[in-house]
Write a structure and sequence with these properties.
Layout lengths: L1 H41 L1
Keywords: Membrane, Transmembrane, Transmembrane helix
């Protein structure tokens, strides 16, 4: 029982870690795209 709850907690932490990484990646991509569009606008 204890091992199962520990597994659930670790898998939940793993999923949260994936979501955080995806969120940060999306912010970076949006920032790069914004910079690119601004650079193209200046050209």
């Amino acid at each position: 029982m204890k091992a199962k709850s520990l597994f659930e907690v670790s898998s939940l932490g793993f999923l949260i870690n994936i979501w955080i990484n995806l969120y940060l990646a999306a912010i970076i991509v949006a920032t790069v795209q914004g910079m690119t569009s601004h650079a193209l606008a200046f050209i």
